[in-house]
Each structure stands twice: as structure tokens, then as C-alpha cells.
Amino acid sequence: MPEQTLTPATETATSGRERPRVRLARLRDFALIPAIIAIAVVGQIVNPIFLQGDNLINILQTMSEISLLVLAQTIVLVAGKMDLSLESTFGLAPGVAAWLTVAAGSGAGLGLLPGAWSIPITLAVGVLIGAINALLIVRFGLNGFIVTLGMLIVLRGLLTGISGGQTFFNLPASMLYLGSALWLGVPASIWLCLLLFAGGVVLLGFTKYGRALYAIGGNVDAAKAAGIRTDRVLWTALVGAGVLAALGGLMMSGHLASVAAAQGDGAIFTVFAAAVIGGVGLNGGKGTVFGAFTGILLLYMIQNVLTLAGVPAQWIQALNGTIIIVALVLSRLTGGKVQD
Amino acid sequence: MPEQTLTPATETATSGRERPRVRLARLRDFALIPAIIAIAVVGQIVNPIFLQGDNLINILQTMSEISLLVLAQTIVLVAGKMDLSLESTFGLAPGVAAWLTVAAGSGAGLGLLPGAWSIPITLAVGVLIGAINALLIVRFGLNGFIVTLGMLIVLRGLLTGISGGQTFFNLPASMLYLGSALWLGVPASIWLCLLLFAGGVVLLGFTKYGRALYAIGGNVDAAKAAGIRTDRVLWTALVGAGVLAALGGLMMSGHLASVAAAQGDGAIFTVFAAAVIGGVGLNGGKGTVFGAFTGILLLYMIQNVLTLAGVPAQWIQALNGTIIIVALVLSRLTGGKVQD
Amino acid sequence: MADDQAATPLVEAVGVTKRYGETVALDRAGIRVMPGQTHALVGRNGAGKSTLVSILTGLQAPDEGEVRFGGEPAPRLADRDAWRQRVACVYQKSTIIPELTVAENLYLHRHDLNRLGLVRWGALRRKATELLAGWSVDVDVRLPAGELDVEQRQFVEITRALSFGARFIILDEPTAQLDAAAIARLFTRIRALQEQGVTFLFISHHLQEIYEICDTVTVFRDARHILTTTVADLPHAELVAAMAGEAAGLAEGPSRTAVTRGPGVVLDVRGLSYGDAYREIGFRIQTGEIVGLAGAAGSGRTELAETVAGLRAADSGTVEVAGRVPRPGSVPDALAAGVGFVPRDRHHQGFVPMMSIADNATMTVPDRLGEAGLISGRRRDRLARALIDNLAIKTPGPGLPVMGLSGGNQQKVVMARALASDPRLLVLITPTAGVDVKSKEFLLGKVEETAAGGTGVLIASDELDDLRLCDRLLVMFQGRVVAELAAGWHDHDVVAAMEGVRLDA
Amino acid sequence: GGGGGGGPASPAGGKPVVGVDYPRSDTDFWNSFIKYVPQFGAENGLELKTTNSQNDISKLTANVQSLISQGVKGVVLAPQDTAAVAPTLQQLNTKKIPVVMVDTRPEQGDAFMVVRADNRAYGEKACKFLGEKLGGKGKVVMLQGDLASINGRDRTEAFNACMKAGYPGITVFGEATNWDGALASQKLQTQLTANPDIKGVYMQSSFALSGTLQVLQQRGLLVPPDDPKHVFVISNDGIPQELKEIAAGNIDATVSQPADQYAKYALQYTKAAIDGKTFKPGPTDHDSTIIQVRPGLLEDQLSAPLVTADGGTYAGVASIKPDDSSLWGNNLGG
Ligand SMILES: Nc1ncnc2c1ncn2[C@@H]1O[C@H](COP(=O)(O)OP(=O)(O)OP(=O)(O)O)[C@@H](O)[C@H]1O
Ligand SMILES: Nc1ncnc2c1ncn2[C@@H]1O[C@H](COP(=O)(O)OP(=O)(O)OP(=O)(O)O)[C@@H](O)[C@H]1O
Ligand SMILES: [Mg+2]
Ligand SMILES: [Mg+2]
User: Fold this and answer.
1) Looking at the structure, do residues C323 and C455 belong to the same domain, yes or no?
2) CB-based touch D/C (3+ pairs, under 8 A)
3) Could you tell me if C43 and C102 lie in one domain?
4) Cys-Cys with C303: which of A30, B303, B310, C277 at CB 3.0–4.6 Å?
5) Which residues 309-328 in chain B show a CB within 8 A of chain A?
6) Is the CB of C111 less than 8 angstroms away from the CB of B211?
7) How far is CA B232 from CA B134, B150, B238, C79, in A?
8) Residues C73 and C107 in one domain
């Protein structure tokens, strides 16, 4: 058969070149590992408590709440959208729960509902916000960046509005649990964060649903033509992101035993930085949950090392930014491809 | 002839639907005009001073400094890149000038150079920052979003570092001029802002350079194939954006007669909102300078009306965001096309 | 007379090597194009033709070797203007900028400026309108180019390249997206330019076009130069053999002999209408039957096929697939009813470039890859390997992103995606666009094989090669089926019908 | 007695390690505080570990964790969010690490001592100064900080309450400004356009200082106090620039927050806690009073002087002149 004659020729021509590319693509997931190791070594030299269990738990716990936003954003980014409003959901969802359940009298609480309602309310607010975003973006075809930017401002404003700018405290016990409980001696929020990321790795990497997300992010028309229900997948992604953000906010509220009117403000910068440093593309279809995890881990390790090193406060930020850029350049060198 | 038979067929098939689309594409530039008129009417009803010359000048002056960031961002966005670090340049460029020229003793000034140097220094810092961005993005092929996010943090940190977090006062007279002078009874910063926007309209709409920006933003390979020196154009765009941001910062410093360590912090949100509401696409090649101008004008008019209306402080933000989303939906209805 | 050894070639590439990573796209290859020649460059998908084009137009530097124009070394890469004076090109990959207007795309970076250095939009539009009118392309030049269809876009590219007044023009598969009438118009124009002494380098997978307008042909195979000769000296079979690197030629004529038509009806279309595109269409396809849907661009064939595949919802009428009526406009429903689909434009709707071959090929059958929504990587790769073997996709493995494949192989991946679901009905729209002759023969063979297994096939195309294996041909013109031809039709009948000439007249 | 610092006994070998978390480094006031801390740390014989929570309460929580890991014996905090610090205080209590809080009082939880000036007193002093100057009638603008800030809110509430009670003839326009000078200038300008007869401005912090002056100058309102067009401006912080502007007659008054005393007494109390001393409500040796806010929480309310050009007394509030050497703003250089 003619094809048989042909195949070996191209085989040799191609096999030599494409194997390494496949390997590199896989490696890109681990692009930040060298940077993480480098920071760990520097940290240990700077201050020997860096690698102590206590300090590592401190790092993980501090990042656990924001990391849920990173997970949420990764899902949305992979599907080719953006959700800036996550940072506001992070504050508003537990804020609404506190508003309705915290006894009247102390601060702005209304005390309308018993404390046990707080967790369902938090998650419901997350669902609702995700659904509004999805309605405007998927159903009405509005630009996702600008819809969620608008939502960010509205939701932040709503939290200021219901709280009158004050912090909610005396939260019901159920709101405190996730942010303050210890499971096997380790904060529950760490377990939760690790579990959800593991779930995210499976979801995006090994399920039908996850592959649909990549397909939509990579080429939505091709996904549609291949029979993927793109609208439905996008709806669930946006709603899921809202729920994750609400859950992260709940953990943060439990951790701080309060909901500040400014909870989450400005977090979206860190979230994007973590996701993008971790290899998640802004144009969809690119990046992994594991990469995003290394991204947020790196950022918080840098913060921790700078704190332990006792860098003068006014220079901390400049150093932090410089290290991020260096990490980026390094991951560019390891990744080896022009980024976009 | 067969061709003759064919032509009318396509004629009927296309003319019905595509002619109006041409008209719509033009209209999209003016998509915000109805919203602006609506806000003006509401403003006048809320408070009859709204349309008084004094108040209009007030709106224009307040937006004049940030609007230069919007202009800069529009240029960069049209070319298919992003520059988040503009908000930091806005603070750092005049900050460095103040640091070097403000007499030692009061605050963090070093007093190394005479006051006349302040404007050249400000602009030079703008050029330098733009050049660093361009080096990393154009020359080394790093992702623009993340490079400029890193730069944003670094530059903001540098300003905190050199100022020690303090505000620079007692600025040299030359730094105050642009932000405080009146030309023909109208603040110089308004003239400057209008002039630069007019220049931007001509530059992007009617020059080879401007059209090259659109081509690069639309399809960089095609632009290269058409003979455009894409790298050079991107360099100048990024450097130009840095200079505009520095100039805006200079005007702000003159207006406030000081450079706060936080000058510009968070402005990038407003800048993106203005550009995108004004019809500038985030993926390059789309939008006009005039559209961006209507975007920032709308945002500041909303702010002004809300202040004049005496809306309770805690609800201002929520209302502001809601109005932005409504404006977006309206412009979607006028624009008539799915946004992306 | 074609080759005057003494004369300096207009353009010459010598010993050019180009690697992408460890890929060798060109291996010490070369070409000599003499002034006034129309030089064909042929080779199978991935042979390195487009890579040579990018080197000849100064978009990339060769790793080794050099390019000379009229004996002089080529300009520096950065000196784009110098390159553009020497060569104009229609690239294989679209260089249309979708956000800009048609007018501006035509005159990109060559705007008319007034004394102040400002663009004269009015003059630009008028020139653009005239230019397109000369090609009988009727589009409003103020439209954003992104709103044109594939064929119109291709014309804008061609018009642009030919309007430079360049003495040397490269056309990299200009005809892949054009229908017969459009190709005829293009060739008329090329002949006129040939008479003015313009030199062409012409790339196409339609070999009859080579014989029609080229005088010299160069064959590349596996990144190497194989031969250069006058077209007249190289019979069709030998040309194919040179490309494929084997003695066997192409099987000529209709290869379809045994029609294994079954009794069942897999597709029943009744009274279908869709806007201006087509009206009152009705036909049936039986098990194992291959039906062609011929028609020029704008005849409604594509829209009709897309309606059957669930990509569009008709305004009225019904589509029944194997006894089920899938929800109109729902691809998942159509898929569930047993439709496999190859869309018109593979880049647009065919594949997700960053995802692997395995993921793309199995995109339509996620449920077969594992239980409870999970995907077993091993099962997916096994299925993908079967498809890769089945369609002879040239790849080191199923994990390669599709964007790393050559055009023809990408098209095979799209075929694989359609076949993966074991469809009852296969809907193919221009299934072999940009595919080399051998691969085309092969893909169509696969279609026949699938039909032999009892699948009904609908092929919407204007390429006679694609339609030759059909048992029955429906010809569309201006949204209506104007003719139905049984197997054994003559080419000229079909062409005439597609152009709206009544057969019985 | 009160601030008995400088006890002789430090444990053999090293000095006691104390952690100080700075709340932010982007305002003049807190930067002064940051400058004073090492000086008073040395005076009290303490070894300092410092962190900066950049106005972010979750950073503060993490910073305290790492201070604990570094084995501090006492902690100084200045949380800008007074509710969210509760879990941190609880954790420090269980580890028996004494906490001294600066500037803010926790909503819940115990601390060894709170060192703060009374923010309600700031608002009141500002109100009384403007009330007297305007003769109990007219319009004033209050440039508030961030609605989410407890200190800002205290100042707002006290100012409004005092105006209502003492000067009902004065209309107050409150504007939230997020501690942003540009926004403050914008809102002031809008208010002056709408109400050209505004006669007083209360800036809740020095962030709005120069912007306010520029707006007044542009409108020709920057005139001496005896001119009928004069707008009375009172600021709040006591940074050197404010003192200069008062002396120059551009603004009329400020309330000086004692940045130096914050640092001095915070570290003194920390040292005392480590040494095992305790305190009781009552007057101190440094012209202030310790009150018991609730069981387990003492607060040393430092006095915050009103600074005016003439050093006069306004509705019972005594003031000092801007060149007074007791002001921290005059002791910064060198
Ligand atoms: N930018 C690139 N990066 C990596 N590999 C590339 C790149 N461009 C081309 N190749 C590879 O180089 C080889 C030659 O590709 P080329 O596009 O020149 O083929 P071609 O002859 O034009 O094929 P076709 O007929 O399908 O257009 C192919 O194997 C292709 O995969
Ligand atoms: N990208 C564009 N594509 C098409 N038209 C444009 C574009 N940008 C601007 N225009 C508009 O085209 C219109 C005509 O421009 P111009 O005034 O240069 O043309 P003219 O005076 O009719 O032509 P000329 O002076 O060349 O004879 C203007 O309103 C201009 O705004
Ligand atoms: Mg090619
Ligand atoms: Mg003209």
C-alpha cells in the first residue's frame, strides 16, 4: 500500500522533533518548581525558622482563602472568560450572611435569621452572583471583563451599603468553624484548600467537563461544532467560581472572626498574578490547576520570606514586585516559548 | 456570462443584512452619547447647577489627569497589549522629580537638583518605564499583562521607598504650573487633555502610525507581512504611554501641589472601565480614542451627579457600579453585536 | 525555451535549511524562478512549501543557505519595504485583519496620505471599491473584513497582492477556498499579468491547475527538493509519484463501483427553508448512500449542510435523522441522533489548536472515554491511536497539539472527530480543502469505506474531485436544488448547473 | 503609677525580643510612628522584630504568626480593623504573650494596654473650633476617610453629634474619600461649586491638605482670616506640613495625633508587661488617664492637642501654637 511506504519517511522526519515539544508542554506545569525551591533555600538561609512546620502551616493557612479565588479564576480563565468580581463575592457573600444572622445591636447586623443559616446564605449569595454574571455574559453576550468589573464595583458597594462601612463581628459559630477549626492538628482551611485543588486537578484534567472547558477556551466555535453545550458549561463555570469565592470568603471570615467592609478589596491583583505566573493563559484554553497552585504558593512564600527577613517596610513592595518579575523571566526561560 | 448570472444572487443575499451593519459600526463610536445625555438630564434635574459652566469645568478638570492614562491605555490596548503599570508611573514619575528637586529638610526631598529640572525628570522617568516594559514585552517576549502587573508593584514600591511613605510638599513652581495655571480662564489641564485627545484621534484615526497600531493589534503576523515594523511600533506605543502617564501624574501633582506616596493607586480600574465602556477591545485592534474619551467622561459625570445628589456615602459605590452596568447594557443594545 | 541557463534567475533560494526546534521543515532545499515564468511548487502536506514562501518573502531567515533576487543578496529582514518591492504574496494563512475595514485591508500600510501626512479615507475607499469591482467582488468596502465569508476574504488577499504592481508574486494555495467560477476569474487575471511579464510562484494541491497555468514545476518531498522541470515534460502520474515518492500513480476516474445501498433512510429533509440562503429543500439519503450537494459559493449548500448538522436552525421544515428529529439548531442532539460532521473551515470550527490530537479526535465521544464523567487517559489514547492509524495521520503520538500538524493532517483530525462517533449520517463540507492529492484520495477512500459500512453521507462541496464518488448529486443554485444527477455525470453538466444554466435549455 | 519603663532586669544574656507590627507605611503619620519605634525600643532595652501589615488584617494575622514563631515575648499591634483582630488576640493570650495595642481598641478580646488618643475627641475638637469660628452658622464640608475605618467613623460621628448638639445652625456636608487626596479634592471642588458659601472644612487626616489648599487657591478663597471670604480649615494629624501651613496662615488649625507618644508608651507598656508589672485605671504621670474599657482591657488615653495660630481657647478646648516644642511634628528632623 502506498500509505505504508509513506509513513516511515514522515515518521522519522517528525518523531525527532515533536517528542521534546510534548515533553516541554508537560514540563510547563512544573515551571515554577525551581523558583519555589530557590525561594525555600533563600528563606531557610535568611531565617532558620522558615522550613519549620509551624511556619509552613502559617504560609498555607494565609494563602488558603485567597487560593480558592485563584482556583475559581483558573476555571473561568481556562474557559476563556474572566471574573473580576470574585474579590467582591469574597467579601459580600459572608457579609450578607453576617448581616442577616448577627444579632441586631452590635454593628450593622439585623439578626433576622438564626446562625445556622449563615453557611447556606453565603453559598447562595455566591450562586446568585455567579448566575447574574453568567446571565449577562453568556445569555446577553456582554463583555466578561467589563461586566465583572461593573459587578465588582456594585458588589463592593453593596457590602459597604449593608454594613454602613462597619465590620461585622460576633459571628455565629457556624461561620467561624471552617476558618478556625483544626483537623488532625492542622487548620481545616488548609485541608479544604488542598482538597479543593486536588478536586480541581481532577475536574480540569480528567473529566469530560474539564475537557469541555479547555475546548471552549481554546476555540468556542469548534467546541460548539463538536457538540459541546458551551453555554451550559460556561454557566456552571461562572456559578461554580462564585461558590468557590463565597467559600473562600467564609473561611476568611472564620479565620478573622469578622467580616470587614473591605474584605477582599484588591485581592484580584494577587489572584491574577498567581494564575498567570502559574501558567494560566488570559485568552483561554491554557494552564492547569496545579500550575495555578504553584503560582499562589510562590507569591505567599515570597511574602513570608520578606517578612522573616525583616526588610524595611517601605521597600517590601518593591522587592516583592522585583521577585515576581524575576520569577516570570525564569519561568519564561524554562518554558522556552514566547508568551501571550 | 456565468459571472453575470451569479452577481445579483450575492447582491440580494448580502445587501439586506450587511449595509446596516456598516452604519452600526460607525455608530459604535457614539454608543455612549445617549448615556451621557441621559446622565446630563438626570444631573440637571437633581441639581440645577449641574450644567453650569463652573461645574462642567470642574468635571473636566477632575478627569483631565486620569484621562491621560485612559488615552495611554487606549493606544496600548489598540496595539493588542496592556499596561497596568501606568497607574504607578502616574505616581512615580512626579515622585522622582519631587524627590530630586524638593529641598532637603521638609519630608523626604533630597534637593539635589534645581526645580527647573522637575518636568524633564518626570518625562524621562515615563520614557524609562515605558522602555523597560517594552524591553521585557517586545524584546524578550514576556506576557504583557504579567510584566506590567509586576512593574506596577515594583514602581509603587519604589515610590513608597523613596518617599518613605510621606507626601512630598513644597514642589518647585514648574511642577505646579500645568496643574494649576489658567489659560483663557480655563484650567490648563483641561486644554491639555482636550488637545492630547484631539491629537490621539488624529494619530490613531488618520496616520500611518495609528493604522499600524490597529493592524498589529488585529493580527500581528499580518501586520508584519504588510511591511509594518511591528517591534518598533510597539516600542513607541509603550514608551509613549509611559510619557502620557508621567504627564498625567505631573498635572495631578500640580493640581494637588504635592505628590502622595499613594498617588495613582487603584486608578487602573477606572482606566480600564473607561476604555472598555468606551468601546476599546481588550484583545487589540478595536476601539477609538473618541470612544475612550466618552467612556471616561461618562464615569466622571456619574461621580459628579452622585456627589451633587447627596447620595448617602455608603451607597454611592453601589449606585455607581449599577449605573456603569446599565450604561454597558445600553451601549450593547445600541451596538447590537455580541462583545468579546 | 523555458530554462535559459545563462540568464540570472529573478529569485533564487540556494541550500536553504530551516528547523523548528528539532523539526526540519526544509533540508538544503532550493528553487530558481526565472523572469516571466509561472512556476509551480508542489508537494504533499508538510513538505515545506509554505516555509519556503515565508523565507522568500522575508518573514523568516533561513538557518542555512541564502535567498538572492536578480543575483543580489536579499535585503535585511528588518527592511520590510525592500522586501515588499521585490515580492508580493498571498499567504496560506490569512493575513486579513478582521477588525479593519475591507478598504483598509486592501491598502494596509500603503494608505494614501494628504499633504499633512493624514490618511485620505475617501480616496482610499474609492480606490478599494474600484479595485474590487474589477474582480466582480461585490462587498461594501466599509465592512469590517471579519464579516466577509472565506471566499470573499481570499479575494481580498489576492486582490491586494496583485495590486502592488510587483514583478514577482507568490500565491500559496490561493484556490483552496474558491469555487470554480472564482478560480476562472483568478486565472484570467493571472494570464493577463503573465502577458505583462509578471513572474509567479504558484502553490496548489489541485494538480490540474498546475497544468492549466504553469510552465515550470518544482516538487518538494520531506523537506527536500526532488525535481524541477517543465510542466509539459511531466505527466500527471509521474508528478504524483514524485510528490509521494513511489512509483504508483493515482487511480483515475470514478473508483466507486459497488454501491452497497441499504433500504433504510438515514436522512429525510422536508420543506426546509432558511432565510435568504435556501428555500423549500427536500431530499432523502439511504443507508450506505453517498449524496453530493454541489453548488457555487452563495448557493446555500453550506448553510443547508450546517442545518442538517445542527449548527443552524431552519426557519421551517424538518430534518429527520435515522427516524429521529433532533432539536433544530442543537449539535449535541444531532450528534446523539447519529450525525458526524466536518465543518467548512477547519481553523474556525474544526479543532482546538492547543489541545492534543487525542482530545480533538475524541471530542465528540466523551462518554466513551470513561465512567461518571471521568476520562481515562489510556482509553482516550487507545481510541485516538485507532483513529490515527485508521486515517494515517502523520504524528509521533496522540499527545501532540493539533497546531503542530500540517494542514492536511489537521484536516484528517477533523475527519477523525467526525468518524469517532460511528455516525449513521456523515455531513462533510468541503472535506478536502487544502489537502494534498494523496491524502485527498485517502480521505475520500475512508468516506467510501464508511459508507460501505452502512453510513449515509452528505458531501457539500464544489470540488468535482470530492463529488466524483457520489451515488447521486444534488446541484444547488440560488438557494434551490436545480438539478439531480445520477452517478456517471459529466463535469461540464455539473459546472453548468452550478452556474445556473438550465440543463434542459 | 503609670509608665514606669526602663526597669533594670533584662534576662541574662539577651534583651527581651518584642514584635512590632506596623499597620501601614503609606501615610505621613504612620511613617513618623515607624521612625520613633526603634528609638524607644532602644531606650527600653528591647530587641525588636518588626513587620508591616500594609493595612491588611489578614497580613497582620500572618505576621503575628511569624512573630510568634520567632519567639517574641511581647507584641505591639495597631490593627486598622478592630473586629478582625480578635482571633489573633485570643491566640496571643493562650500563648501568654502580652499585647499592647496602638491607636485602635479591639472590639473583642483582651490586651495588656491600649495606647490611643481619643478619636471622638478629635472630631469634637474640630467641631468646636469650627463652630466658634463660624459663630454657629453657615456650611462646612467634612472630608471623611474611608467608611470602613473605625477611626474615621469615630471622628465623623463625634463631629456630627457635636455639631447637632452645639451648633444646629451649621450644615455639614460629609464626603467619603477613601483617604485619597485626589478624590477629596474632587469632592470638595464639587461641593464648592454647588455651595459657594461654604465657610469651613474639616479634613479628617492630612491626606487632603495640599489638594484642599489648591482648590481654595483656584477659587480665590485662600485669603487671611480677617477677609470675609476666608474659609476656615482644620486638619487632623499634626504632620510638619500642617504646622507650617498654620504658621503661614493658610489653614487655621489641626489636631495633633501624638505619633511619638504612641511609640514611646507602646514600648514602655510592653516592657512593663514583660517585667510583670500591672496597671490600674486612673491618671498617669504623663498627663493622661488610664480608663477601664471593659474587664481585661485598659486604655491609656493620650491627650491630643489642638493646634491653632493664636493658641487660644475654643469652647473650652485649649490649644497650643504651631511652633510649640512639645509637638511631635516639630521634633522629626535629625
Ligand atoms: N511555526 C512552526 N513551528 C513548528 N513547526 C512548523 C512551523 N511552521 C511549519 N512547521 C512544520 O514544518 C513542516 C513544513 O510545513 P509547511 O507549512 O512548510 O508545509 P507545506 O508544504 O506548506 O504543507 P501544506 O501543503 O499542508 O500547506 C511541517 O511539518 C510543519 O509542521
Ligand atoms: N478606518 C476607517 N475606514 C473608513 N473610513 C474611515 C476610517 N476612519 C475614519 N474614516 C472616515 O472616513 C471619512 C472620510 O474621511 P476623509 O475626510 O479623509 O475623506 P474624503 O475627504 O472624503 O476623501 P479624500 O480627501 O481622500 O478625497 C471621515 O469621516 C473619516 O472619519
Ligand atoms: Mg502550506
Ligand atoms: Mg479629505
Assistant:
1) yes
2) no
3) no
4) C277
5) 313-322, 324-325, 328
6) yes
7) 10, 23, 10, 12
8) no
Is B285 in Cβ contact with C100 (below 8 Å)?
A: yes
CB–CB contact D218 B187 (8 Å): yes
C-alpha to C-alpha distance for A254 and B8, rounded to whole angstroms:
70
Inside any domain, residue C394: no
Q: Which residue of A has its CA nearest to C359?
A: A211
Say whether both C315 and C168 belong to one domain.
no
Question: C320 and C229, same structural domain?
Answer: no
Dist CA D51 CA B166 (whole Å): 19
Q: Report which ligand 1 atom has the smallest distance to the Cα of C220.
A: 21
Sign (positive or negative) of CA dihedral C377, C378, C381, C386: negative
Residue C379 is assigned to a structural domain of this protein: no
Per-residue pLDDT for chain C (505 aa), expressed as one digit of tens each? Answer: 444 455 788 999 999 999 887 778 899 999 999 998 999 999 888 888 989 999 999 888 999 999 999 888 998 888 888 888 888 888 888 888 988 999 999 988 888 888 888 888 889 999 999 888 887 778 888 888 888 877 788 888 888 888 877 889 999 988 887 877 888 888 988 898 889 888 999 999 888 899 999 999 999 988 899 989 999 988 888 888 888 876 554 444 445 555 556 678 899 999 999 988 898 999 999 888 999 999 887 788 999 999 999 999 999 999 999 888 999 989 999 999 999 999 988 888 889 988 999 999 998 888 888 877 788 888 889 999 999 988 888 888 888 888 888 778 888 999 999 999 889 999 999 888 778 888 888 889 889 988 988 899 999 988 888 888 888 899 998 888 988 888 888 888 888 888 777 655 4
Residue B333 contacts A where some CB pair is shorter than 8 Å: no
Domain around C40? 2-95+164-243
Q: Cα angle at C13 between C9 and C19, to 5 degrees?
A: 170
How far D316 CA lies from chain B's nearest CA (Å)? 32
Ligand nearest to the CA of C46: 1
Protein residue with its CA nearest to atom 5 in ligand 2: C121
Domains of chain B: 31-334 (1.10.3470)
DSSP state at residue C262:
-
In a domain, C413, yes or no: no
Domain match, C277 and C337 both: yes
Residues C77 and C215 grouped into a single domain: yes
Handedness of CA C429, C434, C435, C441 (dihedral sign): positive
User: Is residue A266 less than 8 Å (CB to CB) from chain B?
Assistant: yes
Put residue B219 in one of left, alpha, beta given phi > 0 → left and psi -120 to 50 → alpha.
Answer: beta
Minimum distance, in Å, between the CA of residue A162 and any CA atom of chain C: 41
- Given C147, C173, C189, the domain boundary residue is C147
Would C361 be classed as within a structural domain? no
**ipTM for this model:** 0.82
* Number of CB atoms found within 10 A of residue B116's CB: 12
